[in-house]
Amino acid sequence: MLSAHAAAPGDTVKSYPARQVAPDTWVITGPLGEPSVENQGFMNNPAWIIAGDQVIVIDPGSSVQAGRMVVKAIQKTTKLHVTTVYNTHIHGDHWLGNQAILEAWPKAVLIAHPDMIAKAKAGEAESWIKLMSNLTQGYTDGTRAEIPTVATTDGMVSKIGTRSFKIYSSNDAHSKTDNMIEVDNGVLFTGDNVLNQRIARMDDGTFSGCIKAIDRVLTLPVKVVVPGHGKPGSPAIMKAQRDYFQTPFDAVKVEYNAGKSDFEMKPDVARKLAAYQQWNGFDAALGKQISLAVLEVERQ
Question: Is the full-model pTM beyond 0.90?
Answer without folding.
Answer: yes
